[in-house]
């Protein structure tokens, strides 16, 4: 794209893929157009142009712009070019699937720009996304809801019949999971076929399978271990094709502008994020890296991470990430958890070899006291049949109700490879709750 399109802010480096005054794309997909075999960016602008934009990033020209019908709601929030025929509804390769401003999910003829097919669903407040199902029986659709109610993820047949439905307020964008290699050895699925983002103040991402079962989600909710702060996630996709669950989920955070990359256990690996507060009132806090409201993340054809942020002077900007700075990342090791009378190990052990400083904050919000013991090891291998693991107790204590303590670990000299924390009730028969926040520094 040329050196002139590369921007670096406080260590965050990205390449501008698309920016044009007055254009506010909220969604992008990087594809090979089945019509001509050329590289394209398919953009959806729900707030200013109310259109689908097909952009050639090699020639740097807008080839087509198609305005969606209706005037009730801001759409399209997403747009997908059909790669294969869908004979049941007359869709040909190159036609477009999206939601319109009249409260429908539609298929648009690429040549005439006329509506080939449309779907109305009773109770839908704000149709958001539509993706063909992997079994070729219909579509996976989301409805955002409105006014504090409604919202769902749903599988529908081509005639509109519902196969299953999950009520999720502010269900937003859907990404399809690649699945398994032909050998069956490598997969980027954690048990599902689709990832759906829920765009709430502190919401999550859900991996849903073809039968409507939630196979994986982050955060997991109160009373669980291993959770992540996700501030208004509007989109997410799975990155990697590793064995044994070793893949990442890339999440775009609308509140404050951020991109966080989490592992199978909902722990952050890298990314940029800011804080979120209602004091003195609700405002998004722009990050120090120049991102303000990240509405979309997507995979590029090169296998890199693309994103859309509302950082332009009079439009949103589509970018490709080149370099991410080393940043502080905060997550929830235990979310209002009662460890029970026998106690609990908060596993898996914390991998800290990459970090210089780690803080672990224990907050007792329950009735009874909490005992903790923090252990560390220098061994990077925790396979005990090959090596006996030598753990060193580096911190032990008792935390009374309504008290808080922060444990600081200086690992600049890489003393430790892993930390492992055990918590238990101070008095076995008195229930309690603890919130434990970990920050990588």
Mean of pLDDT? 94
Integer-rounded radius of gyration: 23 Å
User: Main β-sheet, in a few words?
Assistant: 5 strands, antiparallel
- What level of helicity do the residues show? under 10%
Structural class: mainly beta
Question: Uncertain regions: pLDDT < 50 for 5+ in a row?
Answer: none
**What would you call the quaternary organization?**
single chain
Strand content range: over 45%
Number of domains: 3
> How far apart are the first and last residues' alpha carbons, in Å?
34 Å
**Distinct helical segment count:** 0
Strand line-up in the sheet with most strands: 1-2-26-25-24
Task: Count the E strands.
Answer: 35
The dominant shape is globular
InterPro entries: Quinoprotein_ADH-like_sf
Main attributes of the structure:
441 residues, mainly beta, Methylamine Dehydrogenase, Chain H, Jelly Rolls, five-stranded antiparallel β-sheet, 35 strands, Quinoprotein_ADH-like_sf
Characterise the protein shown here.
The protein has strands spanning 6-9, 12-18, 27-32, 39-45, 51-56, 61-67, 79-81, 96-99, 105-108, 115-119, 127-132, 138-143, 152-157, 162-167, 171-176, 194-198, 205-208, 214-218, 225-228, 233-239, 248-253, 258-262, 268-272, 294-299, 305-309, 317-323, 329-337, 344-345, 350-351, 357-364, 370-377, 392-399, 404-410, 418-425, 434-440. It contains no helices and 35 strands. It folds into 3 domains: 1-17 and 173-326; 20-169, YVTN repeat-like/Quinoprotein amine dehydrogenase (Methylamine Dehydrogenase, Chain H); 330-440, Jelly Rolls (Sandwich). The protein is 0% helix and 46% strand. By secondary structure, it is mainly β. The protein is globular and about 70 Å long. The mean pLDDT is 94.
């Amino acid at each position: 794209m040329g050196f002139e399109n590369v921007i670096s802010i406080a260590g965050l480096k990205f390449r501008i893929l698309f920016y044009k005054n007055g254009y506010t794309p909220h969604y992008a997909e990087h594809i090979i157009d089945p019509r001509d075999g050329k590289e394209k960016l398919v953009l959806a602008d729900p707030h200013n142009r109310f259109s689908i934009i097909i952009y050639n990033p090699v020639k740097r020209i807008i080839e087509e712009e198609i305005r969606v019908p209706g005037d009730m709601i801001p759409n399209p929030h997403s747009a997908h070019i059909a790669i294969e025929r869908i004979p049941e509804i007359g869709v040909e390769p190159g036609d477009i699937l999206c939601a319109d401003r009249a409260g429908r999910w539609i298929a648009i003829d690429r040549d005439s720009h006329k509506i080939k097919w449309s779907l109305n669903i009773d109770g839908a407040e704000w149709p958001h996304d539509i993706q063909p199902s992997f079994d070729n029986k219909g579509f996976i659709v989301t409805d955002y809801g409105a006014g504090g109610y409604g919202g769902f993820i749903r599988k529908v047949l081509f005639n509109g019949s519902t196969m299953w439905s999950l009520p999720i307020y502010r269900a937003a964008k859907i990404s399809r999971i690649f699945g398994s290699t032909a050998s069956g050895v490598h997969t980027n699925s954690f048990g599902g076929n689709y990832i759906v983002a829920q765009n709430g103040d502190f919401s999550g991402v859900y991996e849903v399978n073809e039968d409507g079962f939630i196979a994986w989600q982050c955060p997991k909710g109160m009373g669980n271990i291993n959770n992540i702060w996700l501030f208004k996630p509007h989109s997410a996709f799975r990155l990697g094709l590793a064995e044994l669950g070793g893949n990442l989920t890339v999440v775009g955070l609308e509140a404050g502008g951020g991109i966080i990359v989490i592992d199978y256990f909902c722990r952050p690996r890298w990314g940029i994020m800011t804080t979120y507060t209602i004091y003195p009132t609700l405002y998004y806090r722009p990050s120090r890296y120049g991102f303000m409201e990240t509405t979309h993340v997507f995979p590029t054809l090169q296998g890199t991470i693309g994103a859309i942020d509302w950082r332009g002077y009079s439009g949103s900007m589509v970018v490709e990430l080149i370099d991410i700075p080393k940043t502080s990342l905060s997550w929830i090791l235990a979310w209002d958890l009662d460890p029970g009378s026998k106690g609990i190990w908060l596993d898996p052990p914390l991998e800290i070899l990459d970090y210089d400083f780690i803080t672990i904050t224990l907050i007792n919000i329950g009735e009874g006291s909490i005992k903790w013991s923090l252990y560390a090891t220098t061994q990077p291998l925790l396979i005990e049949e090959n090596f006996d693991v030598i753990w060193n107790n580096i911190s032990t204590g008792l935390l009374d109700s309504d008290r808080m303590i922060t444990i600081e670990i200086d690992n600049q000299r890489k003393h430790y490879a892993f930390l492992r924390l055990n918590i238990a009730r101070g008095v076995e028969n008195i229930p309690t709750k603890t919130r434990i926040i970990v920050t990588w520094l």
